């Protein structure tokens, strides 16, 4: 990497010394006011709005990410500490529910951004800067949101596996084996599942503590399954969206090649055409001449 | 981010080229300001480079909100600053200057990054223009090549075969060689390598290019003395070889996944399109086959017979781990699985894609290609699968040539393999007869044009014969006996057994540095989401093929690297990656003048 800024500025300054009249007042990028075309001025505001909303959504996604990390760390503590089990469990549940709420809200905001993007495309044309900016932001933010939610799912999956492992281990400690299918059945039946199990374990060499452990894990598993069911629809929506987009959407070459030459807004050109038409000398002196008739058709 | 169990099945890719770090960190992140967005403006070359190592989401994460093509008329966005990532060529520099020549500037300010050294003339022009007043950054970075894969690079010039080997006069040739040489030198600079340069004798273009590369390389080293630092680096080599050296590999029907897919199916710009029912309404799928797809990386060099088996196996394991019913873990049930577990869409669609891709390959293969493979392998190896030398090659190819179901290009491939099998070429009359039998008059110049590459076609020229092959003892599939010639070369070079008369050095190899240089272990993210890895301190073998690179040769680079247990790293590249069809198309136009050639390419949907 070679920094060439100094060298460029030297050239520029040397030229100024020789031909100062070619350069007006020193233009300071950060302070100078720019003359803007009327057309553009209308567009800067929508761009700012989109960018502001996008920035805000992206911050929300980062917070969501942090919450998912919090959940993972909290879940890991389950394995190490035994004492504050019920509190840890409550924490996990509340963090997870918080994540789902944030996720749901973000999903709605992203859908709104997607709609806004669609409307901009209709109003300003799909090739205008503001539409393309909106679309790119929507695509990227959806992508990031999906990643965050997938991480959340991963955290819940890991916790689910951990719980199941612990239940089986505890059961084997008290002398019973619980198979995967039995475990599935237990979880599906919710509270009843526990009652069934505790009855079946009555005869076995039981330990109060072990039974308590199993009961606690079972409850946790049931709650986890409930949470995952609730968030299922959200994942389904996201999956449909991904299916509709091709994987090209995140590809830079596809994006750049798809852009078209910029044409200024049509009303500006029409105004200009009308001006020229009025000023047309043929029209002013003799409207009957064939050349005027020809021009009229243009 | 947690590694899912899916990812842990596959090993982490180590990227030799740190282009994505270079661009993301060195360019985009370096001018990032919190709360401010920027416009990124690229030209064709820089766009290709950028696209091969970054995604839209990557650059949006670093403050870029829109990417523009410098050569198109653009909407002014004067509230945002612009990053210009461009090649230092006249067209791009003019467009840059034009952005700031009127009273109303197109953007608020300019951060300029050239992909290579900017010539003095153009640099002065910028200095004289109003750009100099609004420029906040101006740097030259070294990214003049495409990191196509972790061990494969491309210089993005599909015209290369024509430029080097056309029989028509070509004024741009000198300039083109200089550009190529500069790109190769830049590549070495990025890799911190100062390799000993060797070239294959017998073809004068090799020496010419090697010489030019040596000069550029030395110039780069003067600016960047860290190139080639390290005890092991003294053993690094750069080999320049011509396409004519192995004309068999680019035309053989290969049966490994990547080579087969690109040969038999219509895959443009690495995108595979297919139809599949899903959960929504859309059935069109377009998937990019690149190294972000871990399953692709794991499967791409596998023999097709193993691919479907492997994918099905992995899918079943995956379903089991997620406790999904796996009675019928096949393509049809994937959409059912997706409905039940939409959070695994990424993984499930990966399995679906590769099952479809493998299926499509097999379908095309069974339709016509299976008749050809045995004949091709026998011709290429000079012996049948039992090891008995081929007695009557003509007898085996005639039925193929007379078969109307077989495509013209497939027949040409067979004829060419027959000619190469005959080692000293064949008589003109014989060739005419073959062409007539095969009914391929329209494309027959392809065969003759191979003489431009130095191959023996019509028996009169005493040109080069193909080199002695290594005896290989590994067991292979019957229809995959052929090993690209370059693989022999790679192994010999690494073992320091590469003949110095056939592969001369440009200059005497650097003396082995016996003093221990402290090479700092740099931990960095080579490729965005992969785990950090140490700076590569072992020696590298870099191979540049003039005229295009085939997939089987790319595969060889990985195979040889693996066989050294990571001690050596083999990188291979060319001006472009070819498929058998594109190679034959390139050959076809070697005897045409440039304009009609561009029309031909346009008509056939190829880049000009």
TrEMBL record, chain A:
Gene3D superfamilies: 1.20.5.110, 1.20.58.70. It is found in: Endomembrane system. Pfam families: Syntaxin. One of its GO terms (cellular component) is presynaptic active zone membrane. GO terms for molecular function: SNAP receptor activity; SNARE binding. Residues 211-273 form the T-SNARE coiled-coil homology domain. Its main location: membrane. Keywords: Coiled coil, Membrane, Transport. It is a peripheral membrane protein. One of its GO terms (biological process) is vesicle docking. Belongs to the syntaxin family. This is t-SNARE coiled-coil homology domain-containing protein.
UniProtKB/TrEMBL annotation, chain B:
Keywords: Protein transport, Transport. This is Syntaxin binding protein 2. It holds the Pfam family Sec1. It comes from Gasterosteus aculeatus aculeatus (three-spined stickleback). PANTHER family: VESICLE PROTEIN SORTING-ASSOCIATED. GO terms for biological process: protein transport; vesicle-mediated transport. Belongs to the STXBP/unc-18/SEC1 family. Gene3D superfamilies: 1.25.40.60, 3.40.50.1910, 3.40.50.2060, Syntaxin Binding Protein 1, Chain A, domain 2. SUPFAM superfamilies: Sec1/munc18-like (SM) proteins. The keyword Protein transport applies. One of its GO terms (molecular function) is syntaxin binding.
């Amino acid at each position: 990497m070679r920094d060439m800024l100094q060298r460029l500025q030297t050239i520029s300054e040397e030229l100024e010394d020789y031909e100062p009249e070619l350069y007006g007042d020193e233009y300071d990028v950060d302070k100078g006011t720019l003359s803007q075309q009327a057309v553009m001025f209308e567009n800067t505001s929508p761009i700012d709005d989109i960018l502001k909303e996008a920035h805000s959504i992206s911050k929300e996604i980062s917070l969501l990410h942090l919450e998912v990390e919090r959940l993972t760390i909290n879940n890991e503590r389950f394995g190490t500490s035994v004492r504050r089990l019920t509190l840890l469990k409550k924490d996990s549940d509340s963090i997870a529910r918080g994540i789902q709420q944030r996720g749901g809200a973000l999903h709605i905001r992203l859908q709104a951004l997607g709609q806004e993007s669609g409307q901009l495309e209709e109003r300003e044309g799909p090739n205008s800067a503001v539409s393309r900016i909106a679309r790119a932001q929507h695509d990227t933010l959806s992508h990031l949101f999906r990643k965050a939610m997938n991480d959340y799912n991963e955290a819940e999956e890991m916790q689910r596996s951990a719980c199941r492992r612990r239940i089986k281990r505890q059961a084997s400690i008290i002398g019973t084996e619980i198979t995967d299918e039995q475990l599935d059945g237990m979880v599906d039946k919710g509270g009843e599942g526990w009652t069934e199990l505790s009855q079946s374990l009555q005869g076995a060499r039981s330990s109060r503590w072990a039974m308590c452990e199993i009961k606690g894990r079972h409850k946790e598993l049931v709650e986890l399954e409930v949470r995952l069911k609730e968030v299922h629809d959200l994942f389904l929506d996201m999956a449909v969206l991904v299916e509709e987009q091709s994987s090209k959407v995140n590809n830079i070459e596809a994006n750049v090649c798809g852009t078209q030459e910029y044409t200024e807004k049509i009303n500006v050109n029409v105004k200009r055409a009308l001006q020229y038409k009025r000023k047309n000398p043929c029209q002013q002196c003799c409207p009957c001449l064939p050349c005027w008739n020809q021009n009229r058709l243009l | 981010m947690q590694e899912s169990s899916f990812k842990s099945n596959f090993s982490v890719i180590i990227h030799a080229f740190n282009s994505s770090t270079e661009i993301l960190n060195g360019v985009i992140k370096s001018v990032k300001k919190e709360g401010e967005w920027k416009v990124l403006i690229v030209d064709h070359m820089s766009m290709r480079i950028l696209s091969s190592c970054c995604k839209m989401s990557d650059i949006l994460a670093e403050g870029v909100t829109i990417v523009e093509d410098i050569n198109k008329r653009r909407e002014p966005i004067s509230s945002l600053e612009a990053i210009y990532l461009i090649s230092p060529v006249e067209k791009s520099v003019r467009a840059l200057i034009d952005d700031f020549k009127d009273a109303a500037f197109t953007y608020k300010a300019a951060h300029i990054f050239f992909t290579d050294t900017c010539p003095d003339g153009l640099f002065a022009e910028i200095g004289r223009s109003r750009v100099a007043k609004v420029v906040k950054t101006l740097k030259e970075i070294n990214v003049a090549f495409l990191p196509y894969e972790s061990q494969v690079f491309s210089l993005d010039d599909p015209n290369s075969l024509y430029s080097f080997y056309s029989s028509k006069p070509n004024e741009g040739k000198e300039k083109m060689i200089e550009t190529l040489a500069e790109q190769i030198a830049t590549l070495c600079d990025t890799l911190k390598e100062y390799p000993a340069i060797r070239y294959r004798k017998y073809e004068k273009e090799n020496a010419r290019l090697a010489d030019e590369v040596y000069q550029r390389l030395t110039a780069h080293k003067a600016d960047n003395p860290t190139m080639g630092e390290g005890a092991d680096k003294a053993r690094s080599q750069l080999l320049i070889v011509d396409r004519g050296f192995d004309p068999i590999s680019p035309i053989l029907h290969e049966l490994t996944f990547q080579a087969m897919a690109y040969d038999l199916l219509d895959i443009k710009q690495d995108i595979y399109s297919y139809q599949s029912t899903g959960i929504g309404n859309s059935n069109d799928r377009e998937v990019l086959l690149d190294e972000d797809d871990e399953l692709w990386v794991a499967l791409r060099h596998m023999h097709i017979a193993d691919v479907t088996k492997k994918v099905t196996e992995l899918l079943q394991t995956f379903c089991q781990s997620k406790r999904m019913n796996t009675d019928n873990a096949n393509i049809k049930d994937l959409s059912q699985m997706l409905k039940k577990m939409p959070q695994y869409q990424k993984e499930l669609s990966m399995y679906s894609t590769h099952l479809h891709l493998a299926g499509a390959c097999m379908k095309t293969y069974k339709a016509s290609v299976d008749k050809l493979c045995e004949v091709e392998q026998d011709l290429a190896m000079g012996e049948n699968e039992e090891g008995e030398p081929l007695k009557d090659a003509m007898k085996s190819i005639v039925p193929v040539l007379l078969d109307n179901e077989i495509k013209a290009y497939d027949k040409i491939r067979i004829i060419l393999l027959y000619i190469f099998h005959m080692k000293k070429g064949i008589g003109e009359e014989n060739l005419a007869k073959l062409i007539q039998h095969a009914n391929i008059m329209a494309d027959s110049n392809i065969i003759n044009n191979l003489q431009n590459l130095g191959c023996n076609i019509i028996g009169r020229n005493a040109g080069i014969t193909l080199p002695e092959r290594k005896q290989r003892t590994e067991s292979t599939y019957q229809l995959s006996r052929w090993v690209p010639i370059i693989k022999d070369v790679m192994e010999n070079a690494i073992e320091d057994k590469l003949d110095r008369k056939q592969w001369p050095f440009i200059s005497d190899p650097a003396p082995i540095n016996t003093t221990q240089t402290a090479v700092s272990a740099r931990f960095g993210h080579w490729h965005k989401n992969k785990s950090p890895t140490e700076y590569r301190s072992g020696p590298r073998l870099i191979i540049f093929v003039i005229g295009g690179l085939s997939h089987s040769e790319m595969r060889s680079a990985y195979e040889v690297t693996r066989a050294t247990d990571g001690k050596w790293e083999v990188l291979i590249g060319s001006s472009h990656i070819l498929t058998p069809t594109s190679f034959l198309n390139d050959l076809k136009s070697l005897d045409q003048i440039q304009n009609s050639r561009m029309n031909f390419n346009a008509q056939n949907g190829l880049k000009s």
